[in-house]
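Problem statement: downstream parser choked on a complex file, so we are re-checking the raw output for the adenosine-5'-triphosphate run. The parser issue turned out to be on our end (a line-ending mismatch), but while we're here, posting the original submission so the record is complete.
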Amino acid sequence: MRQSQLFTKTRREAPKDEVAKNAQLLIRAGYIYKEMAGVYAYLPLGLRVLNKIIGVIREEMNAIGGQEVTLTALQQKETWEPTDQWDDAKVDVWFKTQLKNGTELGLSVTHEAALTKLMKDFISSYRNLPAYVYQFQTKFRNEVRAKSGIMRSREFIMKDLYSFSKNPAEHEAFYEKAKQAYVRIFDRLGLGGTTYLTFASGGMFSKFSHEFQTVTDAGEDLIYVHEGKRIAVNKEVLNDEVLKELGVKREELVEKKAVEVGNIFSLGTRFSDALGLTYKDAEGKPQATVMGSYGIGPGRVMGTIVETRSDDKGIIWPESIAPFAVHLIALFDEQGTVKKAADDLYEKLTKQGIEVLYDDRDAGAGEKFGDSDLIGIPKRYIVSEKTLAKGEIEVKDRLTGKVEMIAFL
Ligand code: ATP
Ligand code: MG
């Protein structure tokens, strides 16, 4: 893409009311637009990153047998009443609305009840199980505090997968697989080193649920990290019995601020019982379906990456999700020689399938480098009179700042 054609521009200042570092940098670099507190639009650069994060998650969900769907944002009361999730006193983040005829509707907060109801059309026999169904879909939550930029939005995309299994053993086996898939996802997204498998309360259905918590000062949670075992415990289960079970001592744990980038938990038969999702076993006897829920917020992940991978100049994307692989910067001369060479190089790289953002704007070196640091593409190719004279391109790594010269391609 030619930067001269990109409609977004970088800006020196973030909006005054924006307090989160992730949103400040993303707005200044032209990745997102703030519609209002906790509500952000994704611009061309931002959408590229978001879609790459979604792509990584999708590959890993498909690899464990997930089948992708899109459920609806408009939800009816009848779906959520049987599980007692419609009442605002029970679920206090609903945005509610109504049809012209007065019928109450809600904007999707989550989707486990909706999917359970849908699956009743398809699950009747043990032959229909197990089933693993997921989506990337917008959730609306009337969050009280929305001060963490895109890490806590009032409208955000969630990847939510729900598992439907015949019995607890089959459920457990998939739960383990999903856990490993999550580890791979956060590794691939560049968060492996700072993300901990965190033991949390399992509610009524299992001893623990698991959160994937990334350590950052921008996080709103407190976790207790065991560096040796690379696990953590969250506040609600920090007690002697749990520590003993995990084989760790209180004094080995370090309290850290963190953000929950994903979570997995067993739902047992709460939803299938309430909504009547049963199946007939081989003897023809009705059985309850055992369910699990597996969430990740791609926007929250993106915000977390910005929080944990940025410096005073801007963002430093990991290669796997950078909007472009290469930022090609041409420092034009008056004769147009550099422009010609850079245009050719841009065509050549693009033909090779390399994603290039080409700064072909009529702007000075200072402005181009400053914008490039802010935008944070991992590799920068610089073409100037000087490098051309030697038949070379200067390649700079955004993370390490290391510079090397390569032969002009
Ligand atoms: P939190 O305790 O931080 O509010 P949650 O327990 O409400 O999170 P879930 O309902 O389990 O989160 O949602 C699954 C995933 O969706 C979370 O792990 C997180 O990555 C993401 N998520 C949740 N709320 C938001 C939000 N307001 N904005 C962006 N992502 C979110
Ligand atoms: Mg929440």
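For whoever reads this later: The domain at 326-407 is CATH 3.40.50.800 (Rossmann fold).
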